[in-house]
Amino acid sequence: MTESMQDENLKGKGPPAPERKTQAELKAERLAKSLRDNLMRRKQQARARRAGAADETSGLPAAKTDESQD
To answer: Mean pLDDT for the chain?
Structure first.
């Protein structure tokens, strides 16, 4: 092999250097993930309502009824 061919072969060896991400890019990725998670959760709730599954709470969870002993 010639020297130039050896140099080209050596360049391709090893893992590529990881790209550094800025704080803004990392924040944007976190926000995008939380938005996707929220959308999935809301879609699941909507599907449950269409399927006839009842909500487990009635009104506000912290609200007391007249029958409560507390």
So the answer is: 76
